[in-house]
What does this fold into?
Amino acid sequence: KSAVDVTLDAAAPAQRARLDLVFLIDATGSMADEIAKLKATLRTIADDVATLPSRPDTCFSLVAYRDKGDAFVLRSHDFTSNLGAFQKVLDQLQADGGGDTPEAMNEALFEAVHALSWRGSGATRLMVLLADAPPHLDYAGPQYDATMKAALGKGIKVFSVGASGLDKQGEYIQRQIAQYTGGRFVFLTY
It folds into this structure.
């Protein structure tokens, strides 16, 4: 007597897709052109993502890295859905430093996988790795192979972009990370 059956004619609205998108960027001096291009095209990237059929709720994050002895090793900015605020963070990034070929990619990848506030299950997790140098394999600390396994476990797909000047070791490592996590590797061309 206290129950009422209700039948609705329309199906429940589909929940909006969620996308967490991280830009993991080598910010050493040789990457000035690539960083400038990303700054100039961020709005286009966001607009293209927004017009996908699922119209995803997108959050952006940035992990920039250089190397030991530079002005910074890592600069991390956690996820935000405010594109204007993210553009300001990206606009502040300047290419500088480096010197030797390997960079602090291991530390940056570890930071992106373990320290960012990835949203819970149901969110698509993508990372764009933009670099022209391999990681230091001679440093103690996190190593890319263990971190790529953790990324796979968290459902993070890495799309590696090899910038001009990437050597064979760097290409191999970026291809390995992308393939292992279900992403893709591409060379950046102009």
In short: The mean pLDDT is 94.
